[in-house]
Amino acid sequence: MPRDDRQSLQWYEKAAEQDQVDALWALAKIFDTGRGVPNDPRQALALMNRAAQLGSLGAELQLADDYYAGHGLAEDKKQAATWYAKAADRPRNFIFGWA
After folding, report:
1. 21 vs 36, which has greater pLDDT?
2. How many other C-beta atoms can be found within 10 angstroms of the C-beta atom of residue 41?
3. Backbone angles phi and psi of 18, in degrees to 5
């Protein structure tokens, strides 16, 4: 079956509307890379922030990296450290997907 980016986007958007963290994180990556949609760094950042606030480890680490490097937003080492610390505070079994 061929990949349908438009249909995938619709399903991710429906799930994201319900604050499903994996969908928020996936949409953030889609808008960041422009895969099947126009590249939209602001939308990507908003979705990534929401996913991180809801507990997405991937989003927390990506935000930390982005703040550290100033990728798509102002460089902010203090904010980066906050997100790195939040991600590091997780129990090991959660980080490795054993929860």
Report:
1. 21
2. 14
3. -100, 15
In a domain, residue 97? The reply is: no
Number of Cβ within a 10 Å radius of residue 63: 27
pLDDT in tens, 46-96: 999 999 999 898 899 999 999 999 988 899 999 999 999 999 887 765 555
Buried b (16+ CB within 10 A) or exposed e, 66-98: bbbeeeeeeeeeebbeebbebbeeeeeeeeeee
Q: How many distinct structural domains can be found in the chain?
A: 1
Specify the CATH number for the domain of residue 54: 1.25.40.10
| DSSP string across 3-54 | --HHHHHHHHHHHHHTT-HHHHHHHHHHHHHTSSS---HHHHHHHHHHHHHT
Q: Which residue has the tokens 């590091």?
A: 88
